[in-house]
Amino acid sequence: PTDLAAGAGGLWVLGGAALAESQSGGPVATALARVDPTTRTVRARIVLPRTGTAVTELTEDHVAVERDAVWAIASDYSVVRIDPRTNRIVATIRGLQARAVAAGAGVWVLGIDGTIARIDRRTNRIAVRDRIGASAVASLTAGGGAAWVSAPGDGTVWRVDPGPRLVMRTIDVGAGAGDLSFGAGSVWVANPLRGTLARIDPATNRVTRTLQLGGTPRAVAAAADGVWVTVAGDRRSAAADADARAAGAPVHGSCEPTFFGGGGRPDRLIVSDLPLQGGVRISAQQMVQAAAFVLRQRGFRAGDVRVGLQSCDDSLARSGLFEPAKCAANARAYARDERVVAVMGTLNSPCTAAALPELARALGGPLAMLSPLNSSVSLTRRQAGAPTGELRSFYPGGRRHFARVFPTDDHQAVALASLAVEDLDAQRVAALDDGDLLFGRALADRFATAARSLGGEVVARRSWNPETGSYDRLARAIARARPDAVFLGGILDSNGAAVLRAIRRAVGPEVAIMASEGFTGTELLAKQAGAAADGTYVSVNGLINASLPRAGRRFVDAFAATLPGVDIEPSAVYAAEATGVLLDALAASDGTRAGVLSALFRTDLRGLTGRIRFDRNGDVVAAPITILQIRRGSRRLHVYPDAVVARVLRTRSPAPG
Question: Distance between CA atoms of 335 and 476, rounded to whole angstroms?
Fold first, then answer.
């Protein structure tokens, strides 16, 4: 189960499953079950439609119920209308890339790009739409004659009034505004970042009350007679925290017992923060094992300091994916536990974005976080399309406390531009993207800029719509521009394989096609694109095991001996690298949080992946990018089947912070 709603004579439960043909690691919506509330039996199961290869892994606010209609979002972003009298789908609305649906004062749909639309119930078509001017949108509810949308990064709730043209206004509720619900004549706003529940009066558009709930409020449901809030996280008192630390307890409820092999108790703790459930759990668990292996190799010491490791989970059982509210709650727990001197994590960049402000407010100064795999540019440098002030919000107080041993995504675009212009002598290049401002479009823009700087000419710059059934027209336009190379910025789940097939048919076999890491796994790319995938260049951040330097290969051999029959993943090597860097920083410090952070930014060593130095932003200098080439049937690389290594390029940080 991924979402539910009650009404129209039943409880409607959206069911999810992982799709073998999708990049998504979590469950996506596949069917809606109608449960009889009296007998608690399933009376109907409605299979949701799915067309194309576009897939959304979002699951919240995906079901809305009216007296005579049930609305649900399918895995392909479409919105379906179900007649509760017949339990049949009577309409499917496409073209919105829906992330949320709500019923009240009409039927409203929120798109992933901030588009807000009202559906005409008579025609089942979009009656009116507009764009919400927020940095990012999260939750949608409806009531009181309006639709309401939360914008966590901006700290606002948007009120949208219906009409021939939508009328919008904002209400300041504080950064972190998350789940919304309308009931008891008010809008209720759960704020996981602040641990609060706010009440908005729709008559005045003002916050009339804010309740401190403690923990991490994740979801809210309001009715006429009450408001229910799910609250996660540790709500122990300061005294209870102190007692737990003295007893050597885990930092919080999602952490495992301390891994420590020395006598007595460790003097300091490093925590790993990774998603230990769901589709990536095997990789994340191997990363934890790699960190533990390094700690054991070093005798559980950093200089004279005895060090323990606690493995902590930032994912939810429901989805198997990380959850920003849990990431923030974890960080708060680390910040208040004085045993913790550094965090090794996270795996997902949005999780780090949620954690950084909490770590900045830690006792004894900002708590250092070193990520093995974060690649989002916006964590360390201003990125086009990112909200104004976002970077400052990560580092309240101004001091950087985050670094990473992994390259940022824009290095991929620079490396592929270098491959195209300098190695393949492509003088004319085209760049396409899937419309994602912070990934696909940002990479395509960066590729175009880098290609021009190297002397190439950008002859076409286009975007594709992930919901389009055919890309032949787009492909013909690209072919008319006569490019020598075509770059695709985006992901497979945005219909990337269909775009690649169309481009290959239009430009022929001689034109180089190259794509970012969003087009992995390579086996899935080869399956979806077929023969069109052959020869495609795909960039991968960092090094894979086949391209590691000698120290890295020695580590893989030694670590593999502890896991017989298990293939060691590159992510485990980067987790080991990050752990070793943190131990060296602790050994070079005075043992305080401030001392560890200062030593971390002075790092200069030869590690498992090469030389590790950080610039003033916290990014690794001279980052390696592996360029794969698709060769269907090749099994040389166990992590990247149907591909071989074509190049390994090192690029420097593209821009200052």
Answer: 55
Alpha carbons 160 and 144: distance in angstroms, whole number: 11
| Whole-number Å distance between alpha carbons of 1 and 4 | 8
Distance from CA of residue 102 to its chain's centroid? 24
Helix (H, G, I), strand (E, B) or coil at 324: helix
User: Could you give the 3-state DSSP secondary structure of residue 517?
Assistant: helix
Rounded to 10 degrees, the C-alpha dihedral 651/343/439/414 comes to: 0
Average pLDDT over residues 637-648: 93
Half-sphere exposure of 92 (CA within 13 A, CB side): 14
Let me know if 265 is exposed, middle or buried by CB neighbors in 10 A (0-12, 13-18, 19+).
Answer: middle
Instruction: Supply 532's token pair.
Output: 């069109």
| Residues pairing with 300 in the sheet | none
CA angle 74, 79, 85 (to 5 degrees): 95
The answer to whether 184 and 202 have CB atoms below 8 angstroms apart is no
pLDDT in the model for residue 91: 96
Which regions of 408-484 does DSSP assign to beta strands (E)?
Answer: 428-433, 457-463
pLDDT of 470 strictly over 80? yes
Calpha distance 1→592 (Å, rounded): 45
The helix/strand/coil state of 414 is helix
560 close to 286: Cβ distance less than 8 angstroms: no
Cis peptide before 92 (omega within 30 of 0): no
Confirm if 114 and 132 have CB atoms less than 8 A apart: yes
16-68: pLDDT as tens digits: 887 777 776 667 888 999 999 999 999 999 999 887 667 887 888 999 999 99
- Burial letters for 58-69: b for 16+ Cβ neighbours within 10 Å, e otherwise? bbbbbbbbbeeb
Residue tagged 């990479």 (tokens): 443
Question: Tell me, what's the pLDDT at 518?
Answer: 95
Map tokens 């533990």 to a residue. 292
SS3 250: coil
Cβ partners under 8 Å of residue 565, min gap 6: none
The dihedral over CA atoms of 520, 521, 524, 528, expressed in degrees to the nearest 10, equals: 0
SS3 (DSSP) at 206: strand
What's the maximum distance between 2 C-alpha atoms anywhere in the chain? 74
Beta-bridged to residue 615, according to DSSP, are none
Confidence of residue 305 (pLDDT cuts 50, 70, 90): very high
For residues 225 and 578, give the distance between their C-alpha atoms in angstroms, rounded to a whole number. 51
Q: What is the DSSP letter of 588?
A: T
Q: How confident is the model at residue 560, as a pLDDT?
A: 92
- CA atoms of 508 and 258, how far apart (whole Å): 57
Nearest-5° Cα angle at 105, 72 to 34? 30
Confirm if 368 and 395 have CB atoms less than 8 A apart: no
State the Cα torsion 177-178-184-186 to the nearest 10°. Answer: 30
- pLDDT over threshold 70, residue 239: no
Q: Which residues pair with 150 in a beta bridge?
A: 157
Q: What is the pLDDT of residue 24?
A: 67
CA distance 390 to 410: 18
Tokens representing 640 are 């990247």
Beta bridge partners of 309: 259, 270
pTM: 0.77
Contact (CB, 8 A) for 369 and 345: yes
Q: How far is CA 601 from CA 339, 400, 618, in A?
A: 21, 9, 7
Task: Please choose, from the candidates 352, 358, 326, the residue with its C-alpha nearest in 3D space to the C-alpha of residue 216.
Answer: 326
Mean pLDDT, the chain, integer: 91
Separation CA 577–CA 405 (nearest Å)? 7
The pair of structure tokens assigned to 284 is 């994340």
